Amino acid sequence: MSSLNYLYGKPLSDGDFKRSPEDFVVDEVLDIDFTGEGEHVCLQIIKRGENTAFVAKKIAQLAGVSPRDVSYAGLKDRHGVCTQWFSVPVPIKTQVEFSKLNSDSIVVIKQIRHNRKLRTGCHRGNRFIITLRNVTEPLDVLSRINAVRQGVPNYFAEQRFGHDGHNLVMAQRMFDGEFIRDKKLRGIIISAARSHLFNQIVSRRVKEHGLAKTWHREVFLLAGSNAFFEDDLNDDIVERLNREDILLSAPLVGKGEKGLTNVEREWLREFDSWHQGLAGLGLKNERRSLRVIPKELKLESMQDNVIKLTFELPKGCYATSVLRELINHKDVSLADKHNTGDVDE
């Protein structure tokens, strides 16, 4: 991500991030009215230093089901203290003592029955409590907070691309003709490739236009959905943008020309082999919000070169995309070569 353009200029301050799991606290916001009955048990779990798949496997073992029968709204980073929900099928007349999962790294804090399993993306978003240490220029971080409250580029973060960008290396090999047999790995690689092109388009727009300027003709994303439409700028569009009924967007490329502006088509020529490679897979063109606005961004404390921040993001958005506009943060956890690639979205 170091090559991507900054909206507010590169920060002056350096600092450490994720020096301990407690420096990255994530609480999943799940707006579901549980039925209290049904053949699925939903578990709210706090995990520390464990990835989501590991916890799901532990739940499956205790319930006597396959790990793929355990569902969750989204992945949560291994290198943090994260609260998230899981669901597992359990027959109505069967009782499972899920408290047996409790350990130094896993704590079950709530369980309730529901009539259906949790599905990927069913959460509203995530709340973050982030502690930055060894901050070299605290006042520069403080001076940037008001600007960042207006929004930052909605970049996909490094976790998307694997350790040292390995997923992008694999993507290039795939587009060069190598067949990836593992379906799960293939999906991860394809997702990384689309995310990379999205980042490049957003970065180009940030450099040449910023995020406030609206083009004469745009592809707009309907807020809270994946639907999009193309239209000229007019009074009605401006009004809908102001009330955030629609959002400016950038492409997640696939097959065909639908959902691409002329400017975006021009910019994508630089990445034609990847664009055509993704189109050849039959993927539909999609759109993603160009900007993400951190809700309730607050400076909780600033003392002895340690800064604590809190904010909330919609699902699918990355805390590190907010941080990069505030500070040049060194993610200490990335030194772990066994980093799973779990994401904070």
Listing every helix as H and every strand as E from the N terminus to the C terminus, the arrangement reads: EEEHEEEEHEHHEEHEHHEEEEHE
Distance between the termini: 17 Å
What characteristic shape results from the CA principal axes?
Answer: globular
Beta percentage is: 25-35%
Helicity range of the residues?
A: 25-40%
Please count the helical segments. 8
The overall average pLDDT, rounded, is 92
User: Uncertain segments of ≥5 residues (pLDDT<50)?
Assistant: 337-342
Cα-based radius of gyration, to the nearest Å: 21 Å
| Beta-strand segment tally | 16
Question: Could you please describe the fold and organization of this structure?
Answer:
There is one protein chain. Helix content is 26%, strand content 28%. It is an alpha+beta fold and 345 residues long. Helix 3 crosses helix 4. The longest helix has 26 residues. The chain is globular and about 60 Å long. The two termini are 17 Å apart.
Question: How would you briefly describe this protein structure?
Answer:
By secondary structure, the chain is an alpha+beta fold.
Features of this protein?
26% helix, 345 residues, globular, 16 strands
List the helices and strands and how they pair.
Layout: E1 14-17, E2 24-29, E3 40-48, H1 52-63, E4 71-72, E5 81-89, E6 106-114, E7 125-133, H2 138-148, E8 152-153, H3 166-175, H4 183-208, E9 217-222, E10 228-232, H5 235-242, E11 246-252, H6 262-268, H7 272-280, E12 286-289, E13 291-292, E14 295-303, E15 306-314, H8 319-323, E16 328-331
Parallel strand pairs: 1-16, 2-5
Antiparallel strand pairs: 1-7, 2-7, 3-5, 3-6, 4-5, 7-15, 8-13, 9-10, 9-11, 11-12, 14-15
Helix pairs in contact: 3-4
